[in-house]
Structures are given as structure tokens and as C-alpha cells.
Amino acid sequence: MYIPEIRQILSFLAVEELRSFTAAAIKLDVTQSAISHSINSLASNLDCHLIQRLGKKCILTPQGEVFLHHVRRAMNELESANTKIHLLKKWDYSAVKLGLSHTLCHHVLPEALKEFHRKCSHCEVFITPGDTAVLIEKLEKGQLDVAFGIYRQKFDSGYRFVPIVFDELCFITSPNHPWCQTPPRSEQDFSIQRYITYSKDSLTSQILDDHFSDIGLQKRAVLTMGNMEAIKEMTIQELGVGIVAQWVAREAICSGELVLHPITPPPRRQWGYYLSKTKILSPPEERLLEIISRVLSRVALVDD
User: Fold this and answer.
1) pLDDT tens digit string along 14-73?
2) Helix, strand, or coil here: 85?
3) Is the overall model pTM greater than 0.90, yes or no?
4) Of 64, 237, 296, 300, which has the fewest Cβ atoms less than 10 A away?
């Protein structure tokens, strides 16, 4: 397929605008023969005449009108690209494709983005929510620049994990739950409960299963939910014993809607972000990661 050269397109557009080979040559600061050569080369490669001479004036042929319509669109796109690249250099304008868990989107992202946009108003941030495993997969496919999530032992060697903070999981119940009167002590106290936990295929669920297996605790009746907020609300409605990160339920615990019951020893998750080992972060990306990491570290602090 023949692709016209930029100089040929510029010559064609100049002749169309000024209706003169001589005037087009003056505008582009080239010789008239150079204009003629470009137009003739176009006609030869497209196998049709685009411009017809009428005395000293030039008009477009029907084929020339069609060609003009399309090359104008192409040139507009090139000019738009040039403008955006100029903005990138002048205003530090850029875009970041970020993946975060639903929990971070709810508890961390609003505050972090508000601060970031005050400092980097010309940077677009595109958010993809999801579980850690899904986000890592999108990262490996090039659909994300950075993925925030929980550390897992196995991931592509071409990527690295930057740790931020540990959090701890705990039991939560409504204030009317029997555990609030008599704390659980025996295996039976735990085994008769219906637990409300995070999605079965998630890293959080794997961490819980491994932890409870290590301490000999069986979760016989389990209700799984798609996000921590749903677990919290189901627990408030007295539908079971929830298992969440302490910081997710902090507000409801402080208000008395929920009661915290520690898991001894507590299951721990390490939060951080994944990115390619070869990725060079732009200044806006560095700033955004720093802000999110700082907010997450503060929000996820374990209460004494």
C-alpha cells in the first residue's frame, strides 16, 4: 500500500489553498520544480490526477477532493499529537494507568487523588479496580503501569514488588453476638459459627485458609462476599462473624455498630505495588505512588 510522504501532502495542501504552484513554493520556501515533482509523484503513485491547471490557476479534480478530505483529517491528527507532546514537555502532562483493590479504592484513593490533583493537575489517572491476582495479570499484559495489592510469593520474574505496610485481619461481630458476652475459647465455639469472608479465589482467602490450618481452626460454614464493605454490612445485620482488616471496620467499631474480636495470632497481609523491573517512573508517577503509599501506611496502621 502506498503511503504519501509528508512533503508531498504539504505541497498538495499548499497548492489547494493558494491555487498556484508559484505561491505554494513561496509559502513552503522551496522551488516551484520541487512542488511540481511532489504533485506529479502523488499522481503517479495514486494513478490519477489530483490537480488540474486552468491557465494560471489550479483546481482539484474529483479524486483530488476525496484525497483532500482524508489528508486534512490525517494532518489534524498529526497536529493534535504534536500539541499533546508539547504539553507533555511543557506542563509535565502524562497519564497513569493504575490498578487497585476495591478496598483501597474505597478507603485510600479518594484522599490520595485529591492531594495528587492539587499538585499534578495535568496528569490523567485511569483506575482499574480488582483483586490482586487479576491486576497482576493486567499488568503483565501491559494494560496497567502499576498494580497495588497484596504480596504473593509467585509472580512473573520480570516484575518487582515494592512493600508498603502490613495489616492484620480480625473477627468482627454485631454487639448482640454471643461472643460479646462470652468470648470464644474452645474449638466448638469457633466451629459452630457462620463466617463471612472475602472471595474464595482471592489472596486474602488463601492467607486465611493457610493461617487457620496452621492454628487448627476450621471454618465449616462460610459466606463469601466480593468486597470488605459487604462483609462489614452483612455482619452489622447479624448474618455471621465477619473477617476483615481491622482498619476497614475501624469507623463502625468506634461507633459501636461492630465489635472487634482479635484472631490470635493474627493473619497478616503485606500491601505494596507491582511494576515492571525495567519501568522508569515519570515524576508524576513517582509522586502519585508516594502519596498513595503514605495514605495507605497511615490508614492501615494497626490499632493498639
Assistant:
1) 999 999 998 989 999 999 999 899 889 988 888 999 898 887 788 899 998 999 999 999
2) helix
3) no
4) 237
Sign of CA pseudo-dihedral 109, 112, 115, 118 = negative
147 close to 138: Cβ distance less than 8 angstroms: yes
CB-based contact 110:83 (threshold 8 Å): no
Residue whose C-alpha cell is 467499631 = 253
Q: How far apart are CA 36 and CA 5, in angstroms?
A: 14
How are beta strands 241-245 and 159-173 bridged, if at all? antiparallel
- Please enumerate in sequence order all residues whose Cβ is within 8 A of that of 215, keeping only pairs 6 or more positions apart, or say none: 265
% of residues, the chain, pLDDT over 70: 96
Helix (H, G, I), strand (E, B) or coil at 64: helix
3 state DSSP class of 169? strand
The single-letter code of the amino acid at 152 is R
Beta strands per DSSP E along 155-265: 159-173, 194-198, 221-225, 241-245, 259-261
Residue with grid cell 502506498, as numbered in its chain: 2
Question: Cell for 1?
Answer: 500500500
Gyration radius from the chain CA atoms: 31
